[in-house]
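Lab notebook, design round three. We kept the backbone fixed and only want residue identities now. Task for the bench partner: fill in a sequence for the structure below.
Input C-alpha coordinates:
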Protein backbone atom coordinates (compact mmCIF):
# COMPACT_ATOMS: atom_id res chain seq x y z
CA UNK A 1 0.00 0.00 0.00
CA UNK A 2 1.71 3.15 -1.14
CA UNK A 3 0.72 6.60 -0.13
CA UNK A 4 0.44 9.19 -2.83
CA UNK A 5 1.83 12.57 -1.93
CA UNK A 6 0.21 15.63 -3.33
CA UNK A 7 2.69 18.08 -4.74
CA UNK A 8 1.49 21.65 -4.70
CA UNK A 9 3.10 23.85 -7.29
CA UNK A 10 2.59 27.43 -6.28
CA UNK A 11 2.30 30.01 -8.93
CA UNK A 12 4.83 32.72 -9.56
CA UNK A 13 2.48 35.44 -8.29
CA UNK A 14 1.81 33.57 -5.03
CA UNK A 15 5.54 33.16 -4.42
CA UNK A 16 6.23 36.84 -5.14
CA UNK A 17 3.47 37.96 -2.75
CA UNK A 18 4.64 35.59 -0.02
CA UNK A 19 8.28 36.63 -0.35
CA UNK A 20 7.35 40.33 -0.41
CA UNK A 21 5.26 39.92 2.74
CA UNK A 22 8.19 38.22 4.45
CA UNK A 23 10.59 41.01 3.49
CA UNK A 24 8.14 43.70 4.64
CA UNK A 25 7.71 41.85 7.93
CA UNK A 26 11.46 41.66 8.50
CA UNK A 27 11.88 45.35 7.72
CA UNK A 28 9.07 46.19 10.16
CA UNK A 29 10.65 44.12 12.93
CA UNK A 30 14.00 45.78 12.23
CA UNK A 31 12.48 49.26 12.46
CA UNK A 32 10.73 48.44 15.74
CA UNK A 33 13.88 46.89 17.22
CA UNK A 34 15.98 49.87 16.15
CA UNK A 35 13.50 52.31 17.64
CA UNK A 36 13.47 50.38 20.90
CA UNK A 37 17.27 50.28 21.09
CA UNK A 38 17.62 53.99 20.34
CA UNK A 39 15.20 54.90 23.13
CA UNK A 40 16.74 52.74 25.84
CA UNK A 41 17.85 54.68 28.88
CA UNK A 42 18.98 53.47 32.26
CA UNK A 43 16.34 53.43 34.96
CA UNK A 44 17.98 56.22 36.94
CA UNK A 45 17.55 58.64 34.01
CA UNK A 46 13.82 57.95 33.96
CA UNK A 47 13.69 58.50 37.73
CA UNK A 48 15.58 61.80 37.53
CA UNK A 49 13.29 62.99 34.75
CA UNK A 50 10.16 62.07 36.70
CA UNK A 51 11.50 63.72 39.86
CA UNK A 52 12.24 66.91 37.93
CA UNK A 53 8.70 66.93 36.49
CA UNK A 54 7.16 66.38 39.92
CA UNK A 55 9.30 69.13 41.46
CA UNK A 56 8.24 71.53 38.72
CA UNK A 57 4.57 70.69 39.32
CA UNK A 58 4.95 71.20 43.07
CA UNK A 59 6.66 74.55 42.49
CA UNK A 60 3.72 75.63 40.33
CA UNK A 61 1.29 74.55 43.02
CA UNK A 62 -0.31 71.72 41.04
CA UNK A 63 -1.19 68.54 42.97
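Proposed sequence:
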Amino acid sequence: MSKKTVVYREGKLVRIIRDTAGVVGLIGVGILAGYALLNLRPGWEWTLEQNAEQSAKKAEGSP
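Keep this in mind before ordering anything: The helical segments are 12-38, 43-60.
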